Amino acid sequence: MKFGVAIFPTDYAISMTELAPAAEQMGFESLWVAEHSHIPTSRLSPWPSGGDLPKHYWHTMDPFVALTVAALATKTIRVGTGICLLIERDAIHTAKEVASVDLVSNGRFIFGIGGGWNREEMADHGTDFSTRWKLLREKVEAIKTIWTEDVAEYHGDMVDFGPMWEFPKPVQKPHPPIILGGSGPKILERVVRYADGWMPNRGRVIERIPELQELAQAAGRDRIPVTYYPKASADEIERLAAAGVDRLIWYVPPDGRDAALKKLDELGEMVRPYLKDELLA
Questions:
Q1: I want to staple 2 with a disulfide (CB 3.0 to 4.6 A). Which of 194, 239, 247, 266 is the partner?
Q2: What Rg, from alpha-carbon coordinates, does the chain have?
């Protein structure tokens, strides 16, 4: 079992130069950041968690800037987007940003992506909610081509470009792992088709893991790892580990240094019994 921490890296949150080394020292395997480019004030799309949308959703830094800072302040902890709203981003620029962070981190980047939930936010980027999953797949396919081919080209219905050069290439080969977030009815098929892992944040998780692995096997793929954001308790760790979850991630507050370090200490104490001795040396 791997353990990670996540944060909305706001302008008033703990600095990534302090959070990342602290998480690394405690033995956490990975550090994740959320992304929202902006939040339209119309607020027509309801927050999936219910209630009023917290203000940190529209105070979040660019994830690649935040993770570059985290990578340069650490040596071993992996850095990841949890999630990057690729449907709102240019595929060519994003391919370069991921490869660049993978390079400066010496191969420690994890590319978490998803389809998003805020219709107004993605509409401001020209993305139609009803076709966002097709757009996401084509962008992933195009980015993989850029990462793995010296002369890359891609011709889809929604993403299209001719032969091009783009460097640097990622350090990780064939490319950084792509972890697909989501819990909808078709998410498992999407994971098997173009991702390297599944990262649900709600809904039926344990019950769907056998189905995921059956689909992977039928597609001639190896077992697909599962990352999840659970409740913070030892009982949950035991339950999810037994069910086949590979990585657990918990959020620390985005409301300043003291709150984040307090939560990080609590999480560190919780996972300490499960960490390998060498991580604590």
A1: 247
A2: 18
Kindly list the domain boundaries of the chain, sorted by start residue.
Answer: 2-280
* Overall fold of domain 2-280: TIM Barrel (3.20.20)
Task: Please state, in angstroms and rounded to a whole number, the distance separating the CA atoms of residues 86 and 105.
Answer: 21
Tokens of 250: 């918990």
152-155 vs 160-164, strand pairing mode: antiparallel
User: 98 to each of 5, 30, 74, 141, 169, how far by Cα in Å?
Assistant: 20, 16, 18, 14, 9
pTM here is: 0.96
Neighbour order of strands in the sheet with 2-7:
197-199, 178-181, 109-113, 78-81, 30-33, 2-7, 247-251, 227-228
Per-residue pLDDT of the chain (281 residues; tens, 9 = 90+): 999 999 999 999 999 999 999 999 999 999 999 999 999 999 899 999 889 999 999 999 999 999 999 999 999 999 999 999 999 999 999 999 999 999 999 999 999 999 999 999 999 999 999 999 999 999 999 999 999 999 999 999 999 999 999 999 999 999 999 999 999 999 999 999 999 999 998 888 999 999 999 999 999 999 999 999 999 999 999 999 999 999 999 999 999 999 999 999 999 999 999 986 444 43
Do 101 and 63 contact (CB within 8 A), yes or no?
Answer: no
Number of neighbours of residue 141 by Cβ within 10 angstroms: 15
